Amino acid sequence: MTETENNESQKSNTKICTKCEKELPATFEYFYRKESIKEGLRSQCKECVKEYQQSKKGKEYKKKTNKKYRESEKGKETIKKWNENNHDYFPQWHENHPEWREKYKQNHPHRIRDYFRKMKKDDLRKYKQYLEYKKIHEWVKRNKPKQEYCTICNEIKELELSNISGEYKRDITDFWYLCNHCHRLFDKINQTHKKQ
Length: 196
Description:
By secondary structure, the protein is α+β, with helices and mostly antiparallel strands. The protein is built from nine helices and six strands, in the order H-E-E-E-E-H-H-H-H-H-H-H-E-E-H. It has helices spanning 3-11, 46-54, 56-71, 73-85, 89-96, 98-107, 109-118, 121-143, 180-195, and strands at 14-16, 23-25, 31-33, 41-45, 159-163, 175-179. A two-stranded antiparallel sheet has the order 1-2. The protein has a two-stranded antiparallel ribbon with strand order 3-4. The termini are far apart.
């Protein structure tokens, strides 16, 4: 495809894909947006881009760029903000999809085995504590009826289970239901008192 052919196609409101060389309407239906280019469209059509993304080379490139972004300052800040605002997302997702964990264990037993082999003693201890913490939370949820309002602010909001003493005893009186704001505030104050 020559530059003259490309210019002629742009004048007729069409665009020629640089990979498959098909002449397609110069719209967002056929081409992805790219603001750094004057016309605002990528040089390759959507079909060719999807084909590349699904290829082995495309997947490796995406994995490499994602890792590079996560390790950058901007990426770290974005991940930190997301985790602060969605700290209960993954526990909630796993709770709603219990079949996923079993399916993963069946399909990738070697990954789980290798993960625990490489795990340091301290990390393993923390992981066991997390499993115990999760079991207690599930037990309390089964035995402590969920209320409609936050125990601290008395407002009707989406509630989360919070431990009062920080010892995670198997005692329903050691837990209460709080909204996200009160939960985070209570944990912050509680940690400050423990340090003192």
